Amino acid sequence: MRDVPEGFDSWTLVELLGAKRPAWHRHAVCRGRADVSFFVERGEPTAPAKAICKTCPVRIQCAVAGVNEADGVWGGTSARERRSSRPAA
Fold it and tell me: What domain range includes position 56?
């Protein structure tokens, strides 16, 4: 087993990966919300995730980041809503 650098032994993989995320992620209301899925199966309700998004101070940044994402609720929009708002090719 490889040695873990001092100070990293208590970090989780998510925390380590989070170091590479945009600064606005720290202010996202959904952060750490394991009780609500933001990546639901097709046909499953998105309302619980969207309700959390409504209260989020970084909703706009999230919506911009997710504009081309094929899955998930981003900034209060579902994948279907994002697809329908894209201009036709």
Answer: 27-85
Q: Is residue 17 part of a domain?
A: no
Q: pLDDT tens across 38-54, in order?
A: 999 988 999 999 999 99
Please, which residues have CB within 8 angstroms of residue 77's CB and are 6 or more apart in sequence? 63, 66, 85
For residue 13, tell me if it sits in a domain.
no
- Phi, psi at 77, each rounded to 5°: -115, 140
Give the total number of structural domains in the chain.
1
Q: How far apart are the first and last CA of the chain?
A: 51
Determine, yes or no, domain membership for 54: yes
pTM here is 0.73
Distance, CA of 85 to CA of 88 (rounded, Å) = 9
Residue 6 lies inside a defined structural domain of this protein: no
The answer to whether 67 and 83 are in contact (CB under 8 A) is no
